[in-house]
Amino acid sequence: MRDGDPMTRLLHYLELPPMWLALFAGLAWAQSTILPFGFLGWVGDVGGLLLVVFGLALASWAALRVVLARSSLIPRERPDRLVVTGPYGLTRNPIYLADAAILTGLILIWDALPSLILVPVFLKLIERRFIRREEALIREAFGAEYDAYCRRVGRWL
């Protein structure tokens, strides 16, 4: 959304995937505070940290590929280029996959095992609120080239 009044634009950009990730992480943290488990200990800390680092690295790699291609990272904007290299050669949604890894890692670090149910809920919400629209915009912009890419590379893996 490149036009419109400033408040509408602000709200538009606030309702982005990182905000949903923060909300879901906040729910997991709240669960760990209200109903602590203390089950995983250092294993959860190490495994969780590895997942968070993996997620941050994957998201950075994917974002760098988009920036180098001179396309938009904003979900609701029509992309200028179809990026199919780097992590996009393995998954069509590496940044969202990275978000799921980060959320899972935080849940493990906080030992919030009941909150693991939030991970598939988060992915489904992201798919419905963002991915479907993004796919429609990309298909509109790149047609058969995007369809061929979808046949080669899965939505998640």
Question: What descriptors fit this protein?
Answer:
single chain; globular; mainly alpha; 0% strand
Describe this structure as you would to a colleague:
With 157 residues, this protein is mostly helical. The protein contains five helices and no strands. It has helices at 6-14, 17-34, 41-68, 94-109, 118-152. The longest helix has 35 residues, at 118-152. It is globular and about 50 Å long. The protein starts with 5 loop residues before the first helix and ends in a 5-residue tail after the last helix. The relative contact order is 0.17.
Structural topology:
Blueprint: H1 6-14, H2 17-34, H3 41-68, H4 94-109, H5 118-152
Helix pairs in contact: 2-4, 2-5, 3-4, 4-5
Task: Give a brief rundown of this model.
With 157 residues, the chain is mainly α. The protein contains five helices and no strands.
Give the termini distance in whole angstroms: 29 Å
Number of strands: 0
**Quaternary form:** single chain
Provide the gyration radius in Å. Answer: 17 Å
The helix fraction, in percent, is 55-70%
